[in-house]
Specification:
The chain is of the alpha+beta class. Helix content is about 50%, strand content about 15%. It contains 5 helices and 4 strands; from the N terminus they run H-E-E-E-H-H-E-H-H. The longest helix has 24 residues.
Length: about 120
Amino acid sequence: MRRIKSKDTSIEILLRKELWRRGLRYRKNPKDVFGKPDIVFKGKKLAVFADSEFWHGKYLMENKYIPKTNTEFWVNKITRNIERDKEVTHKLESEGWIVLRFWETDIRKYLFECVYTIEETLNKL
């Protein structure tokens, strides 16, 4: 558990490197933005989250993988993570932010599509 990072994960770094390569400048995990999004374009009020499937509940919602030991603890923990993600998204959107969330597998398999989505959103703002 000690090796689990809350920022600078491999998927965040992948996404950030491609954004930087394309000349897009951002802030990472700013403390003054609610929920500390992974990537933030403050001037455009765009928050980007790179969510892993396990910690943010995709596996749980799809019944793909549920830990076999200490199941009740993990289900409660991941369910709370899902609720917190919804709360953060709702709060940011109520403050006028655009929130984009990408799953880990989407970033790994479709990196350029994810970056394109971010670029298109920025161009519309």
